[in-house]
Amino acid sequence: MTKTLQEIIDANPEAETFRFGDGPKLCAEILAMVRNGAKTATCEAASAYGKGGDAWPEVGRRDVALNWDGTPALMIETVEVTTRRFLDMDHEFVAAQGEFRDLEHWRASYEAYFQRAGEFSPDMKLMCERFKLIEDYA
Predict the structure, then answer these.
(1) Which residue ranges does the record assign to the ASCH domain (predicted)?
(2) What is the pTM of this model?
(3) What is the rounded distance in angstroms from the CA atom of residue 63 to the CA atom of residue 73?
């Protein structure tokens, strides 16, 4: 039986919901990488969190990643949260993100992503999260 989002949230009231990426194609690609174990980390502009934004990830909290259409895709559990500036990103964290060839590819891709959101700066603060897959709703 497929679980509804409401059933998942009722069972996990502390869970936040979110979407990976900024469009349906990227969202689906990233969800596939989480499912196959290639992606165990992500980052976002720190400015996306807090007042008027998403809740800051917390170690041990389980959150629900949504398909682009808003249906539940999978549940992850945060295992580490750190902050760093865009220009301080390192190869090891980029590798854990799964979708980039190297640090230069990460820089070009994330610079474009943040520019689409209208907030790129080389010294911008990033929330860097490591997670593990708990449940796949596919």
Answers:
(1) 18-135
(2) 0.91
(3) 11
